[in-house]
Design goal:
It contains eleven helices and no strands. By secondary structure, the protein is mainly α.
Amino acid sequence: MAARRTARRPRRHRSRRARRHAAGRGRRGRHGDGGEPRARAGGRPRHPGRRRRRRPGVPRHGGIRHDRIRRRVVNDTASPASGSPASGSPASGSPAAASIWRTARLVAGKDLRIERRSRVIVNQVLPFASLVMVLFAFALDNDEVLQRTAPGLVWLATIFALLVVVQRAFAVETADGALDALRVAGVSPPGIFLGKSLALAVQLLVLELLLIGLAVVLYEATLTATGAVLLVTTLLPATTGLAFVGTLYGGLAAGARGRETLLPLLLFPVVAPVLIGATRATEAAFGVGHAAIDEGWPWVGMLLVFAALFGVGGTLAFGPLIEE
């Protein structure tokens, strides 16, 4: 008897499941077209009691999500020369500009993280620039001469430090192949140029502030409140111009032979206007030689023009430079 019950149970289960299947088929016949069940893409009808489970976090219409991701990736990697998908819209330039600034932020963050981990500015560049200023103090050995030449020595040490920072930054990019990887990935060259210039400007600005403090201690230079305003206004365009020039010529000399000697030959003549203008404006800020504050503002204007010219020129020329 137990064996018979065991043999009959699957039979009753199969008949119950068959009845449910038949009832479901009848319901589909009432609500469907012509009583036929609607077929899926594979040709097999879907069971009425089963609902397709979708993964959490995935919307019902998955194509919308994929289109958004695709557009975001295209905007991240598209260059201005390749155009944008929204070129027919009134704001056709905004996606390309957003892509350039997004790339610039990423590249600048990468360079600053590398600097924070390696600490080249603190361990190498700052001691080198400080040693230059100390050696000049020993060579001149006159308080009046030191006070008169302090602004020029600050900017001269900054330019020497710029050379070291640019050589080291592009040596890392060339050795690791990071610059080639960015180029092959389709990242916009203007974004790379602006990002590396931004990271270089931040490093130079920190270095300049430390060197100015060292000049005040070593050379007994004095600074008033109005002079401090002029000094800060001088630092921003001068540092930006130096960063643009350093990034442009650093990229030019990165793939050349003998780049250690080629970069100074290219860099020093070009930054001479920055050295002259920043020195004159800093002299007015410190009141060297009884210079008035108003005498420094024309030099600030010249530094702004210099930074704008090399910013635009570097943005346009950096792409062909890294391609060759």
